Amino acid sequence: MHGARRGQGEHKLRGVSARDRDGDAVRLHVVTGKGGTGKTTVASSLALALAAGGRTVLLVEVEGRQGVAQVFGSRPLPYAERPIAEAAEGGRVCALAADAEAALLEYLEMFYGMRRAGQVLTRFGAVDFATTIAPGMRDVLLTGKATEAVRRRSGDRRRGGREAGGGRYVYDAVVMDAPPTGRIAQFLNVNAEVAGLARVGPIRNHADKVMDTIRSAQTAVHFVTVLEEMPAQETLDGIAEIRSAGLNVGSLIVNMVRPPFFAEPVLQAVAEGSFDTGALVRGLKAAGLEDAEDTARGLAAEVGDHALRVAGESEIRERLAGVDRPHLELPLLGAGVGPGQLHDLAARLREQGL
Predict the structure, then answer these.
(1) Cβ atoms < 10 Å from Cβ of 330
(2) pTM of the entire structure?
(3) 194: burial class by Cβ within 10 Å (0-12, 13-18, 19+)?
(4) Distance CA 298, CA 292 (A)
(5) In CATH, what number does 18-261+324-351 get?
(6) What is the pLDDT of residues 59-74, one digit of tens each?
(7) What SS3 state is found at 304?
(8) Rounded Cα–Cα distance for residues 354 and 46 (Å)
(9) Which residues pair with 249 in a beta bridge?
(10) Nearest to 250 by CA among 12, 27, 78, 53
(11) N or C: which end of the chain has fewer CB within 10 A?
């Protein structure tokens, strides 16, 4: 682990009620972020955090990268819900890799009893053709799987598209490892995407049901970013797009946070150009190092670069502070990500009020 002691650098949650903070009203957690920000790691950690205390959570991957399987050290995920990890205090995380073709076959079987017809369509490439010329259809199928899991209750029986049964929810929450920030609004706004394709009929009805869940208080879109210019700006733009689409923004999660190596007075001295290189030379000489002056100049340059990075991150942090949603922070991991690190990150999310 490369980072500060637990709790260092974490921000207090601002402007949210206990209900918002605990996520009790939210059952579908959509996680998005620019590539390279650790979106899949955060989604997986979030699922573990939500499952703590004996809950059951479904983690859905929709991009076909098998990133969830990699971080959990699991074999590739099928299009089937299966346990992937145990959470704290008896919780359980299940996972699946959503696939548009498999979702269509399931859709045809569930609502029309037409699985064999769907297999024929697949054999002739009709499914790929349809989702290529109408990308909105693919998104409806992928988001539809997640929203169905949100609504599903024990004892449900589906016939002709109708759901019956009044048992408890099968999943206490569903976490979606969603597409990157640049495409998230389009991906979630499936009604607009299928408007030109199907204005009436079962496809439109299915899209309406998906949007009923996505637009409700049950769904929140969480944004993952790092303290760098491009990811931060894309996050701010993505939040504006999600709000314009009438969807709910959840938490802003700053990932891979690196603490300053030096105290504030040292960083301030570097910024003001008053850093005492002479003291550094004397210290190196006292330690018996050869070429103390050359070494001191090299170290001073590195301290300067570090100070510039810290100052830049502070500026980005101030810009992100304008987002009036909960702010959470996770540290940079120094040795890759595996199940152990995911549990540690999940614990940090819980410590910050999740």
Answers:
(1) 24
(2) 0.82
(3) buried
(4) 10
(5) 3.40.50.300
(6) 999 988 999 999 999 9
(7) helix
(8) 9
(9) 221
(10) 27
(11) N
